[in-house]
Structures are given as C-alpha cells and as structure tokens.
Write a structure and sequence with these properties.
Order of helices and strands: EHEHHEHEHH
Number of domains: 1
Number of strands: 4
Oligomer: single chain
Largest sheet: 4 strands, parallel
CATH superfamily: Response regulator
CATH topology: Rossmann fold
Number of helices: 6
Radius of gyration: 14 Å
CATH architecture: 3-Layer(aba) Sandwich
CATH class: Alpha Beta
Length: 151
C-alpha cells in the first residue's frame, strides 16, 4: 500500500483539496484500496476545523465527499508512516522539515513537481482564488497518479 500525506499551512484549503481530489482520481481508476491518502497542517491555527468553504464549494461541485475531514497537525512520526509527504509550497517544505527533522529517504516533495513545475500552489486563504488553486492541484494530482500508473 502506498501512503501519501498532503501538507499545507492550515489543512483547511489546499491539502484537503489535494487529498480528496487524489482519492477521487484513485477511486475512478479502481485503485482506492491500494493507497492510504491523508492531509495535515504545519501550523496549529486551524486544528479541528472543517474544510474551508471555498474548498468545500469546489469539492461539492465535483461531488467529492469530504464531510468528516477536520484539520490535523503534521507529526514527526508521519515521516516514517508515509511514503510521500507532498507539500503545497516552499514554506510548507521548510516547515515540514522543521517538524520531521532530516529526511534521509527523500520523501518530501512539492505537489507541482509531479506536473513538471517548481512553482508553488498559491494559498487561496490569501488569494481568494480557489479555482486557480484547484487547477494547480488537479494538475499535480494527475501527474502524481501518472507516476503510479507507470509503475
């Protein structure tokens, strides 16, 4: 089983969007049972809160369930638990490294690497543009899926 953890600052906008979009891609491909997919925050600000209404609107439109999701914090032990720790931006990578310590197994990535880019997924908490965030997340998740489809 491949274990993937999507990571952003608060775990209410980008990382849960990536979590549930990727789960949807896997389910549609009949591979949902081959993966464990979750998401977490590098900060404590939103812990326990539900998905942001902007992310919820997009997931609702796509008919992707997320109702039980509450923000959780990234833990040091997650480095051993997951095969891939996929961050939404460079600041998330820096903060993930601060939390998990060194990463000898090279498990930490930025999502857009899987779409052939080094760019960050913009945080819609600040931009207000959840559609642009969704486009980037879909591109990254599609690229990530292709990585496993080839294997």
């Amino acid at each position: 089983m491949v274990k993937i953890l999507f990571i952003c600052h608060g775990n209410i906008c980008r990382s849960p969007m990536a979590e549930f979009v990727f789960k949807d891609i896997l389910e549609k491909a009949g591979l949902g049972d081959k993966f464990l997919v979750a998401s977490a925050a590098t900060s404590f600000e939103e812990i326990g809160n539900p998905v942001h209404r902007g992310t919820a609107r997009i997931l609702d439109r796509l008919k992707i369930s997320y109702s039980e999701k509450r923000a959780v914090h990234l833990e040091k032990t997650d480095y051993e638990k997951y095969d891939y720790l996929i961050c939404m931006d460079s600041a998330n990578v820096k903060n993930t490294l601060r939390i998990v310590g060194n990463h000898p197994d090279n498990k930490i990535y930025k999502l857009m690497e899987f779409a052939g880019s080094d760019k960050d997924v913009d945080d819609p908490w600040y931009t207000g543009d959840f559609e642009k965030t969704y486009e980037d997340i879909l591109a990254g998740c599609t690229g990530l899926f292709k990585k496993f489809k080839k294997a």
